[in-house]
Specification:
9 helices; Rossmann fold; 2 domains; six-stranded parallel beta sheet; 33% helix; globular; binds nicotinamide-adenine-dinucleotide; Dihydrodipicolinate Reductase, domain 2; single chain
């Protein structure tokens, strides 16, 4: 029997506690340590289990020498902690967004390359079974040409997040998912933002994206909505797919009048709706299983550093567009191939 993969988690806040729960319960994985600057968070994550807890990343890395580390500290600390883990010889899953800015992200990617370690980015929505089924159907051509993809990610204000605004915190999820399901790149963005709650960053955001293949993307993202909603709508010439991430639902509303000729829309009328059966799986578990398979099989990383950097580059272009009140081209941003 192969030895268990030795995993560790650094940062045990609302997301890191989930990494520790899932890794602590995964066959073939041994959770060898967890770390957080807050001893109470360490105590809660350990939760009576025989898992060593540490006050900081360097001590955990020195004492446990893990094979793989989840970096789940606040975004501004991703670079520091990811570099410490890579330099200690660990493969790394860094939570999204990959880093606070592109230069920091490039330094993490370069260190992973130099030390020949896998670097994956926590774009968890790719691992939602409803998204995976949507992508399969889109690539099979079920809907025909994609005309528009619209993401709505709204909910109440998260007071614990102080270091970034809503675009950097939530936008990378939808930017990444749109690229992932369309297998296409974004060439131009336009955005508008507002700040209503007294913090340093934006909390209300609307963005428009243009994909190279011609599809239009719409991002409707905010922290000001009393109810939480996470949906993705993909409008195609033959009908419309709708994903509800939370309940892992995928529906297709057929365009009854779809033309027989691909690439042409004769008319649009309401056809039948189909709800596809999806087997529920926790996306974080699917993500961490993919990471463990990649580490054991020598790669590639489930979500590449480049994917993380493109999502961040597009988020930064959206912020710039909102600042300047102008569309911004994203094709030439300094993202390595
Ligand atoms: N993939 C997702 O869906 C998802 C969801 C939530 C958060 N995130 C990402 O995860 C990261 C953490 O977010 P969160 O919501 O869990 O934040 P959080 O504030 O709840 O938790 C961060 C934790 O890091 C600890 N910490 C801070 N500095 C540290 C250090 N130097 N060493 C060790 N521990 C340290 C804090 O004490 C805290 O417990 C962010 O990058 C965020 O964007 C991803």
């Amino acid at each position: 029997m192969p030895a268990d993969l030795r995993a560790a988690v650094i940062g045990l806040g609302s997301m890191g506690a989930n990494h520790a729960r899932v890794l602590g319960d995964m066959p073939g994985v041994q959770l060898v340590g967890v770390a957080d600057a807050d001893p109470e968070r360490v105590r809660k994550a350990v939760n009576g289990r025989p898992i060593p807890g540490f006050p900081d990343a360097p001590t955990l890395l020195r004492e446990t020498a893990p094979d793989v580390v989840s970096v789940v500290v606040p975004t501004g600390l991703h670079e520091q902690v990811a570099l410490q883990a890579i330099e200690a010889g660990a493969h790394v899953l860094v939570e999204k967004p990959i880093a606070a800015d592109l230069a920091a992200a490039a330094r993490i990617a370069a260190a992973a390359e130099k030390h020949e370690r896998l670097l994956s980015v926590g774009h968890i929505e790719r691992f939602n079974p409803a998204i995976q089924e949507l992508k399969r159907r889109l690539l099979e051509g079920q809907g025909g040409r994609v005309l528009q993809v619209r993401a709505r990610r709204v909910g109440p204000f998260p007071h614990r997040i102080r270091d970034v605004g809503v675009i950097h915190d939530l936008g990378p999820h939808d930017i990444d998912i749109m690229r992932f399901v369309l297998e296409d790149e974004i060439e131009r963005v336009f955005a508008d933002v507002r700040r209503h709650i007294a913090t340093d960053n934006e909390d209300l955001f609307a963005g428009m994206l243009r994909f190279r293949g011609g599809a239009m993307g719409i991002l409707d993202i905010n922290w000001l909505t009393p109810t939480k909603e996470r949906t993705l709508t993909v409008l195609c010439e033959r009908g419309m797919f709708v994903v509800d991430y939370a309940v892992q639902e995928l529906r297709f509303y057929e365009n009854h009048a779809a033309a027989a000729i691909p690439g042409e829309i004769a008319s649009v009328t309401e056809g039948p709706m189909t709800r596809y059966p999806i087997t529920y799986r926790e996306p974080l578990r699917v993500e961490l299983e993919s990471l463990s398979d990649a580490v054991l099989g020598n790669g590639p990383a489930p979500v590449s550093a480049r994917d993380g950097m493109v999502a961040l580059a597009v988020a930064e272009a959206l912020v710039r567009s909102a600042d300047e009140g102008m569309p911004v081209q994203v094709a030439d941003l300094p993202v390595p191939a």
